[in-house]
Amino acid sequence: MGSMFRSEEVVLVQLFLPTAAAYTCVSQLGELGLVEFRDLNASVSAFQRRFVVDVRRCEELEKTFMAISWWWPLSDLPLHPAFLQEEVRRAGLALPPPEGVLLAPPPRDLLRIQEETDRLAQELRDVRGNQQALRAQLHQLQLHSAVLGQGHGSQCAWLTLLGRACPGRRRGRLAQPLPSPAWTRSFVAGAVEPHKAAALERLLWRACRGFLIASFRETEQQLEDPVTGEPATWMTFLISYWGEQIGQKIRKITDCFHCYVFPFAEQEEARHGALQQLQQQSHELQEVLGETERFLSQVLGRVQRLLPPWQVQIRKMKAVYLALNQCSVSTTHKCLIAEAWCATQDLPTLQQALQDSSSEAGVSAVVHRIPCRDMPPTLIRTNRFTASFQGIVDAYGVGRYQEVNPGERHRMGVLADRVDPLPTAPYTIITFPFLFAVMFGDVGHGLLMFLFALAMVLAENRPAVKTAQNEIWQTFFGGRYLLLLMGLFSVYTGFIYNECFSRATAIFPSGWSVAAMANQSGWSDAFLAQHPLLALDPNVTGVFLGPYPFGIDPIWSLAVNHLSFLNSFKMKMSVILGVTHMTFGVVLGVFNHLHFGQWHRLLLETLPELVFLLGLFGYLVFLIAYKWLRIMAAGAASAPSILIHFINMFLFSRSPTNQPLFPGQEVVQSTLVVLALAMVPVLLLGTPLFLRWQHRRHSRRRRQPNEDKTGLLDVPDASMASQGSDEEKAESPGDQEEVELVLSEVFMHQAIHTIEFCLGCISNTASYLRLWALSLAHAQLSEVLWAMVMRMGLSMGREMGVVAVVLVPIFAAFAVMTVAILLVMEGLSAFLHALRLHWVEFQNKFYSGTGYKLSPFAFAVEDE
Question: Is the same domain home to 55 and 111?
C-alpha cells in the first residue's frame, strides 16, 4: 500500500491461465481493472498471433455497427452518412447507454450477434431502399403535377392563335419567321433546378436558333428533396418547337442538364384528366410511403434497443482477445502464461477473481510474484476531489516509481470508484489555490468563483451536466473542485487585502484615530485650507491605537500613499512565500533520498542546497522579518534599506548612510556568502567522486575469488529448473551485469544540476515576485473598473428615478466586464502563473517526473 507521500507498491506477477478458462479470467480482470498486461509476444507480428482471427471478426462487427449507426456504406444508394441519427432525432428517440453492467459475451455468442447484425443491416438496407424509391417516385409525380398545373396551358393557347393569325411576325425570342402552318408543332415540358434554368434557356436559344418558344416558371410550393429531405423550389418549363431535328436537340440538352421531362397534352381536357390521375396516384403513394416510414420507425426502435449493448459487448470481447494475444502459450498447450503489473494490496482480490473465473474449468488459475529489474509503473489513486490536482502534477510529468508525489492519487480502473483513499501528499491541494489567491485576492471575485464552482459540484451527478459536449464547459467541470478551493482561498486573501470589488470594508474599528491627531496637532481652519493633504503621525499619542485585527486597515484605502504601502507589503510577502516554497521543495527531496537508499545525497546534495539557499535568500527573509519586528514608528524615518544591505552582502562592502540592523551584521553576511560559495564545489564534485569511489570498491570485491558464491548467483535455482514444463516458458529475470560507470556523464549531469540550482535560486526567487506584480495589477484593474463604470453611474443623477434608470445599464456593463476581464482573463492569467511556480520553481527541487502511469486493463475506459 502506498505511503502518505508516494505512489503505491506495484509488483510484477505471473499468471497461469487454463486454456479453457483463459477468456473468462481475462474478462473478469477487465471488469475489475487490476492489472496491466506485459506483451510477451513483442517479436511476433500482429497477424501471426493466436487470436488474430477472433480479433478480425470483432473488427468486422464493429464496422457493421458503424455502418448501421451512420447508414454507410451498407448500400450503394447515395445516403447521408448521419441518416440514422437524424431519423432517430426526428422520431424523438436517442441511442441510450446500455442498462446495467454488460459482461463480455462468451465466444459462442459472437456468431449469434454477427447473424443478427447482418439480418438487421439487410432489413435496414431494404427498407431504406424502398423508402428512397417511393420518395423519388412521389417527387416525380409532384413535379409532373406542378408542370401541368403551373399555367402553361395559356401559353399553349397563345401559341395556337399566334400560329394562325401572325405566321410571319416575330414575337418574344423568335429570330426567324414562324414556320409554315403545315409543319407539326410539338411540346417538351419538364422541371429543372433553379440554378440551371438560366443556362438551359440560353443554350436552347443558341442551339435551336430561335425555332422555339420557351416558358420558365417557379413552382408555387416547395417540394421535398428525395435525398436530403430539405424543401426546395423547382423551375418548370414548357418548350414549343417545330421540326423533328429541333426536338432531338432539345431532348439532348435537357438530358445533359438532368431535367425531368414529362408528357404534355395540347388539349386542355386531356391535361386536366392527367392532372387528376396524377393527384390520385400521389395520394396512394403517400399512403404506401407512410406505411414504409412506420415500418422504418419500428426497425429504428430495434436498432435503438439492440445496438448499444452489442457495441459494448463486442468492444469488450475484442479487448479480451487483444489481451490474450499478449500471452504466451505453454509447451503443453494446456495454459496461457501472462505477466502483469499489479498493486500489492490488490493481489488477494486478483487471486480470488482468478479462482472464481476458472472454477468451471476444473483447474484453478495460478498467480505468483516474480522479481523484475525494470522500473515498475506509477500508481496513484484519485477521487473526484483530487483528480484535478493530480492532473496538474501529471501535466509536468508522471513521477518515478514511489517518488514523492506533490499532488494526489491517480485513478486506477474501476477501483477508484470503490476506494476512497486518504490524501497522500496534500501539497499541491493547498499551495496551488493559495498562490493563485495571492495574485487574485478579492472577496467579491473569489466569492463569485466559489459560487460558480459550488453550483457545478452540487449538480455533478446530473446526467445533463456530465454529458455536455461543450469543450469549455467540460474543462471547467473537470476542475470544479480546483475552482472551488481557488475561490475559497481568494476570499481569504481578499479579507487580508481588505478588498471587495476594489472597495475596502470596515469589519472592525480602524486602528488609526483622526480625532486624536486633530486635537493634539492644532489643525486650524487656516491650516486645513493651506494643506489639502493631512498626515497621521503614529508617534502622536492616541493616533495609532494598534494593528487591525485581520488584514489591512481600511483607512489605507483613503491614503494617497496607499499604492506605495501595498507595493512594499506585497513585494516582501512574495519573497517570503517564494523562499519558503522553494525550501519546502528541497526538504521533500530528503524523503526521496531516504526511500531509495541514496544516503550520500543527503550530505553531498541536500545539505549544500539548503546551506546555499538559506544562507543567501533565507537570510533575506530574516532581514525582512527582523526589520518588521524591530523597527518601530519612531525610528521609521531612519530605518536602513534591506535592498542595499543585500547588495552590499555580495559586494563585501558597507554603506555609510545605511546603518546595520543589528551588531555584527557585516561579519554574518560575509560568513554566509563564503559558506554559500563553498557549497558550489561540494555540489559539483561530491556526488561524482563518491560514485567513483563506490564503483571502485565494488569492482575490487568482484575480483576476489569466490567461485562458490558466484556459481550460486549465476546458476538458476534448482527448484526453479525442476518446475513443470508450463513454467519453463515463463521468463525468469536473471542477474544482469552491473552497468559500467561513465564518469564523464556523471560529471556532466552533476554540473548541469549544480548550475541549474545555483542560478535557479536567484531566478526563481525573482520569479516569485510575480505574486506581487499580478496582485497589484488585479487590484488596480478592479479600481479602474469601479472608477470608470460604477462611480460614473452613481454620480450621474441625484433623483431616485434617474438613478434607477441609469444604474440598470451601468450595473449590467459592470457585471459583464467584471466576469469577462477580472474573473476570466485575470483568473486565467493567475492560474497560468501559479502553474509555472509549481512546475519550475517548486517541483524541480525534488520531482523528476520521468515515470509512466500504470494503465490497467479495464473495461471502464472502453465504456467511456
Answer: yes
Count other C-beta atoms under 10 Å from residue 844's C-beta. Answer: 18
Q: Which of 163-172, 190-199, 479-488 has the lowest mean pLDDT?
A: 163-172
Same domain as 145, residue 40: no
552 is a domain residue: no
| 665-670: long-range pairs with CB below 8 Å, 24+ | 668/619, 669/619, 669/645
Domain CATH for 229: 3.30.70.2750
Mean pLDDT of 363-387: 88
Q: Which of 205-219, 426-440, 638-652, 760-774 has the lowest mean pLDDT?
A: 205-219
Which tens digits make up the pLDDT trace of 255-274? Answer: 888 888 888 877 778 878 88
Q: Which domain holds residue 201?
A: 140-155+184-292
Is the bond preceding residue 73 a cis peptide, omega within 30 degrees?
yes
- Span of 161-165, 230-234, 315-319, 540-544 with lowest mean pLDDT: 161-165
Q: Give 642-665 pLDDT, tens digit per residue.
A: 889 899 898 888 888 888 888 888
Q: Is the Cβ–Cβ distance between 776 and 567 less than 8 Å?
A: yes
Gap between the Cα atoms of 286 and 284, Å rounded:
5
Q: Which of the listed residues 292, 326, 360 is the one where a domain comes to its end?
A: 292
Q: What are phi and psi of 641, to 5 degrees?
A: -90, 125
Q: Count up the domains in the chain and report the number.
A: 2
Q: Based on the fold, state whether residues 144 and 270 are members of the same structural domain.
A: yes
Beta-sheet pairing, 328-329 with 335-343 = antiparallel
843: number of CA atoms within 13 Å, CB side? 28
Per-residue pLDDT at 104 exceeds 90: no
Q: Max Cα separation, the chain?
A: 133
| Residue 152, burial from CB neighbour count under 10 angstroms (0-12, 13-18, 19+) | buried
Same domain, 359 and 215: no
CA 734, CA 755: separation in Å to the nearest integer? Answer: 39
For 189, the grid coordinates are 415540358
Q: Are residues 288 and 299 in the same domain?
A: no
* Residue-wise DSSP of 460-525: TT-HHHHT---HHHHHHHHTHHHHHHHHHHHHHHHHHHT-BTTB---SS--SB-HHHHHHHHT--H
The grid coordinates listed for 237 are 418549363
Residues 273 and 147 in one domain: yes
Is residue 503 a contact partner of residue 530, using CB atoms and an 8 Å limit? Answer: no
Residue that finishes a domain, picked among 292, 316, 350: 292
Helix, strand or coil, per DSSP, at residue 223 = strand
